[in-house]
Design brief:
SRAP; alpha+beta; DNA-binding; hydrolase; 7 helices; Abasic site processing protein
């Protein structure tokens, strides 16, 4: 699984790296860099979306979406989403605490993910992620997985919009934007640390992954099958990362 990761790039660097637009409201919600990103926190997320619903009011106000010939234009955006997917049909947002990851093998079958796989794919920028093994004394030993040649990785993800029934339809905070990280079985090089790893979208496939114009879940399945195994390097880091309250640059430094 992916239960903790790090983003070392600033918000402006992410906007440039992914050629994305950023609404002022979202910029204020993001705390980048962040060296100990935990579930249920707000995370930078790249997605493509047209200005066509009340849930896009923030981008409409920022004039970052351009409309051509009366039709809403799809635009790449860097948004602030909560990590832990809350499907639109959920009774309350607490379900997101259990949906921080989605398995690639069943992505297009499970009701919680199928619609999002077809219409709401996204990318979560990261420098790498943490996994743990047990030491001889039974204590959790953290490792940081990263690609030394790629400072900004892109985790494959899905996103959803959940309407809060307790808020008015014209309330700008009515819509809760949430996301999940897609995982796959880990390659042999990483399997001794953990049996699963985030799916990483290579730069040459980011456009295809974000393009949900087909509206078909089979497209997501085919793209996942085409993505290569990541070439990640693990190294031990301080056990200070075990505490989610710690968030310092040295947390991702090798011991």
């Amino acid at each position: 699984m992916c239960g903790r990761y790090a983003t070392t790039a600033s918000t402006s660097d992410l906007v440039a790296a992914f050629d994305a637009a950023l609404a002022a409201e979202d910029a204020a919600k993001l705390d980048n860099p962040s060296y100990n990103v935990a579930p249920t926190t707000t995370v930078p997320t790249v997605l493509e979306r047209a200005e066509r619903s009340e849930s896009d009011q923030s981008l409409r106000r920022s004039e970052s979406v351009h409309v051509t010939d009366g039709e809403p234009a799809v635009q790449r955006q860097l948004r602030a989403l909560r990590w832990g997917l809350v499907p639109s049909w959920a009774k309350d947002p607490s379900i997101g605490n259990r949906m921080i990851n989605a398995r690639s093998e069943t992505l297009t079958e499970k009701p919680s993910f199928k619609r999002a796989a077809a219409k709401r794919r996204c990318i979560l920028p990261a420098a790498g992620f943490f996994e743990w093994t047990k030491g001889e004394d039974g204590k959790k030993l953290p490792f940081f997985m990263h690609d030394p040649d790629t400072p900004i990785l892109g985790f494959a993800g899905l996103y959803e919009l959940w309407p809060d029934p307790g808020k008015a339809k014209d309330d700008p905070d009515r819509w809760l934007w949430t996301t999940t990280v897609i995982t796959r079985p880990a390659a042999d090089a990483l399997g001794h640390i953990h049996d699963r790893t985030p799916v990483i979208v290579t730069p040459d496939m980011r456009d295809d992954w974000l393009d949900c114009s087909s509206g078909k879940a089979d497209v997501a399945r085919d793209l996942l099958a085409a993505l290569p195994e990541p070439h990640l390097v693990p190294y031990r880091v301080s056990t200070d990362v075990n505490n989610v309250r710690n968030n310092r640059a040295d947390l991702i430094q090798p011991l």
